């Protein structure tokens, strides 16, 4: 077996298969391997014309077919299966080889795996890949972490197969150890928020306009020609206009309204809780999926809870549509702002040095949240790399400010008419919270001191204080 492959891919389900084809189409000789050889054979039989594949049945042959230092991409289900494949590869690997995990791994697992492989003289790169099947084949957004030195040889290949926007690859080295998978996790959290916000906009239009799915699909189509232009808005327009072949009804009307998840949104929220970063948009989006799937609770709620909402009578339809568009844009900016805050906090805590502007840049193409406005985010971080709050950047402060009245109208009308808008509402609440001169947190501090002597600080002098609430109410230094 001559070691002629420049890269190897093991795990040939749809993502791995398409990634392998993408490498081959870019002129790389690709070693391919899968637990069941039939998949490897079918890849070569069906897509051999894509380029030069080197199929192997055994792990030993697969590894031996790759030139050193080897670059091996693992594309299997995140969790146990990834560990199993790594353990299978290890005995065949040699010092300096690079193992790349392209699955949606939880970043603490990536950190653990990198340590384990580093002890063996091997490099481990946790690599976020976004764009689904289509992206994997035609150009995904790629978020590799791991040792920087491995990016020197791996980076050019990954940049080659990634999506390009204005000729710029949607791939860059994110940072050491778990940084790549961390950023992919937050990408997915933002994806959840974006999807929830779009779903709420759809629901508002449906109730407010009493319109059918196809009409709303047309509205999304128009929105996609403006500031909101993005992959998710585009597919929403398409999905809403799709008709179910079996019933002739709008497709969205025959789909069960229980949203599922594989866990990346949940991880994002769990991590934000640990970091103490308010990512309310992502959290509400994740909880909204949970609520949708809470079948017994929804049954009980439907049976017992009144709405006491009137009939929604929108008089100026065009103005209402524009209000919803502005509210969607503002809420979306909040969700991204919060996600970027989380990246900054984790990066500071772990010493990853993540460049947020570069993350917005590599999300402009290939990935699920690709959108026109990501350019604006990159520009904001170019203006100020340490920007503490994305929505406070002059560009975003201005556009959110201009839509503020609309945003308030939409959220209040939704509440008056009993339409749930957890992500719209919480984003507006966050906006009002983060810009508030003074928050009622002062009262919470006083309450905490009252019942638990938890102490407080004062606005007028330094130090920490406690009041003797159950005694003479004198204050003393704590
Ligand atoms: C992507 C997607 C992709 C996938 C997730 C989300 O960036 O290509 O985020 O990773 O769609 O698995 O799926 P869930 O909604 O099932 O969590």
UniProtKB/TrEMBL annotation:
<dbReference type="Pfam" id="PF03446">
    <property type="entry name" value="NAD_binding_2"/>
</dbReference>
<dbReference type="InterPro" id="IPR006113">
    <property type="entry name" value="6PGDH_Gnd/GntZ"/>
</dbReference>
<dbReference type="GO" id="GO:0050661">
    <property type="term" value="F:NADP binding"/>
</dbReference>
<dbReference type="GO" id="GO:0004616">
    <property type="term" value="F:phosphogluconate dehydrogenase (decarboxylating) activity"/>
</dbReference>
<comment type="function">
    <text>Catalyzes the oxidative decarboxylation of 6-phosphogluconate to ribulose 5-phosphate and CO(2), with concomitant reduction of NADP to NADPH.</text>
</comment>
<dbReference type="GO" id="GO:0019521">
    <property type="term" value="P:D-gluconate metabolic process"/>
</dbReference>
<feature type="active site" description="Proton acceptor">
    <location>
        <position position="184"/>
    </location>
</feature>
<comment type="similarity">
    <text>Belongs to the 6-phosphogluconate dehydrogenase family.</text>
</comment>
<dbReference type="InterPro" id="IPR013328">
    <property type="entry name" value="6PGD_dom2"/>
</dbReference>
<feature type="binding site" description="in other chain">
    <location>
        <begin position="187"/>
        <end position="188"/>
    </location>
    <ligand>
        <name>substrate</name>
    </ligand>
</feature>
<comment type="subunit">
    <text>Homodimer.</text>
</comment>
<feature type="binding site">
    <location>
        <begin position="76"/>
        <end position="78"/>
    </location>
    <ligand>
        <name>NADP(+)</name>
    </ligand>
</feature>
<protein>
    <recommendedName>
        <fullName>6-phosphogluconate dehydrogenase, decarboxylating</fullName>
        <ecNumber>1.1.1.44</ecNumber>
    </recommendedName>
</protein>
<dbReference type="InterPro" id="IPR006183">
    <property type="entry name" value="Pgluconate_DH"/>
</dbReference>
<feature type="binding site" description="in other chain">
    <location>
        <position position="192"/>
    </location>
    <ligand>
        <name>substrate</name>
    </ligand>
</feature>
<feature type="binding site" description="in other chain">
    <location>
        <begin position="130"/>
        <end position="132"/>
    </location>
    <ligand>
        <name>substrate</name>
    </ligand>
</feature>
<keyword id="KW-0560">Oxidoreductase</keyword>
<keyword id="KW-0521">NADP</keyword>
<feature type="binding site">
    <location>
        <position position="454"/>
    </location>
    <ligand>
        <name>substrate</name>
    </ligand>
</feature>
<feature type="binding site">
    <location>
        <position position="104"/>
    </location>
    <ligand>
        <name>NADP(+)</name>
    </ligand>
</feature>
<feature type="binding site">
    <location>
        <begin position="34"/>
        <end position="36"/>
    </location>
    <ligand>
        <name>NADP(+)</name>
    </ligand>
</feature>
<comment type="pathway">
    <text>Carbohydrate degradation; pentose phosphate pathway; D-ribulose 5-phosphate from D-glucose 6-phosphate (oxidative stage): step 3/3.</text>
</comment>
<feature type="binding site" description="in other chain">
    <location>
        <position position="104"/>
    </location>
    <ligand>
        <name>substrate</name>
    </ligand>
</feature>
<dbReference type="GO" id="GO:0006098">
    <property type="term" value="P:pentose-phosphate shunt"/>
</dbReference>
<dbReference type="Pfam" id="PF00393">
    <property type="entry name" value="6PGD"/>
</dbReference>
<dbReference type="InterPro" id="IPR006184">
    <property type="entry name" value="6PGdom_BS"/>
</dbReference>
<dbReference type="InterPro" id="IPR008927">
    <property type="entry name" value="6-PGluconate_DH-like_C_sf"/>
</dbReference>
<feature type="binding site">
    <location>
        <begin position="11"/>
        <end position="16"/>
    </location>
    <ligand>
        <name>NADP(+)</name>
    </ligand>
</feature>
<feature type="binding site">
    <location>
        <position position="448"/>
    </location>
    <ligand>
        <name>substrate</name>
    </ligand>
</feature>
<feature type="binding site" description="in other chain">
    <location>
        <position position="262"/>
    </location>
    <ligand>
        <name>substrate</name>
    </ligand>
</feature>
<keyword id="KW-0311">Gluconate utilization</keyword>
<dbReference type="InterPro" id="IPR036291">
    <property type="entry name" value="NAD(P)-bd_dom_sf"/>
</dbReference>
<feature type="active site" description="Proton donor">
    <location>
        <position position="191"/>
    </location>
</feature>
<keyword id="KW-0570">Pentose shunt</keyword>
<feature type="domain" description="6-phosphogluconate dehydrogenase C-terminal">
    <location>
        <begin position="180"/>
        <end position="470"/>
    </location>
</feature>
<dbReference type="InterPro" id="IPR006114">
    <property type="entry name" value="6PGDH_C"/>
</dbReference>
<feature type="binding site" description="in other chain">
    <location>
        <position position="289"/>
    </location>
    <ligand>
        <name>substrate</name>
    </ligand>
</feature>
<dbReference type="InterPro" id="IPR006115">
    <property type="entry name" value="6PGDH_NADP-bd"/>
</dbReference>
């Amino acid at each position: 077996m001559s070691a002629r492959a420049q890269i190897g891919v093991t795990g040939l389900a749809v993502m791995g298969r398409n990634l392998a084809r993408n490498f081959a189409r870019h002129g790389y000789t690709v070693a391919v391997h899968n637990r069941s050889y039939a998949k490897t054979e079918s890849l070569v039989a069906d897509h051999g014309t894509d380029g030069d594949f080197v199929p192997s049945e055994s792990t030993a042959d697969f590894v031996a077919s790759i030139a050193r230092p080897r670059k091996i991409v693992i594309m299997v289900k995140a969790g146990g299966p990834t560990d199993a494949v790594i353990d299978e590869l290890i005995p065949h690997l040699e010092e300096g080889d690079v193992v790349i995990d392209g699955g949606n791994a939880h970043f603490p697992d990536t950190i653990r795996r990198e340590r384990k492989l580093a002890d063996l003289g091997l490099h481990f790169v946790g690599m976020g890949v976004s764009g689904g099947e289509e992206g994997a084949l035609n150009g995904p957004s790629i978020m590799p972490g791991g040792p920087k030195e491995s990016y020197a040889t791996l980076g050019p290949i990954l940049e080659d197969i990634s999506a390009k926007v204005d000729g710029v690859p949607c791939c860059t080295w994110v940072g050491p150890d778990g940084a790549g998978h961390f950023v992919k996790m937050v990408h997915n959290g933002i994806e959840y928020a974006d999807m929830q916000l779009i779903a709420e906009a759809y629901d508002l239009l449906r109730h407010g306009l009493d319109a059918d799915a196809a009409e709303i699909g047309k509205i999304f189509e128009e929105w996609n020609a403006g500031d909101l232009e993005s992959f998710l808005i585009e597919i929403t327009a398409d999905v809403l206009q799709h008709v179910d072949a079996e019933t002739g009804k709008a497709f969205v009307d025959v789909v069960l309204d229980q949203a599922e998840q594989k866990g990346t949104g949940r991880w994002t929220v769990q991590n934000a809780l640990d970091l103490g970063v308010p990512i309310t948009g992502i959290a509400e989006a994740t909880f909204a999926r949970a609520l949708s799937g809470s079948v017994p609770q929804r049954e009980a709620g439907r049976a017992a809870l009144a709405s006491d909402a009137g009939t929604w009578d929108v008089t100026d339809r065009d103005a209402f549509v524009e209000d919803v568009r502005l509210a969607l844009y503002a809420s979306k900016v909040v969700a991204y702002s919060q996600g970027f805050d989380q990246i900054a906090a984790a990066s500071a805590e772990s010493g990853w040095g993540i460049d947020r502007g570069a993350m917005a840049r590599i999300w402009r193409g290939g990935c699920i949240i690709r959108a026109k406005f990501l350019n604006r985010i990159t520009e904001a971080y170019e203006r100020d790399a340490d920007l503490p709050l994305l929505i406070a950047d002059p560009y975003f402060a201005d556009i959110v400010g201009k839509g503020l009245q609309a945003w308030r109208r939409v959220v209040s009308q939704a509440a008056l008419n009993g339409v749930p808008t957890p992500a719209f509402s919480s984003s507006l609440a966050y906006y009002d919270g983060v810009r508030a001169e003074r928050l009622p947190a002062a009262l919470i501090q006083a309450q905490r001191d009252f019942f638990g002597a938890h102490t407080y600080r004062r606005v007028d002098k330094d130090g920490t204080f406690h009041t003797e609430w159950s005694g003479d109410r004198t204050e003393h230094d704590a």
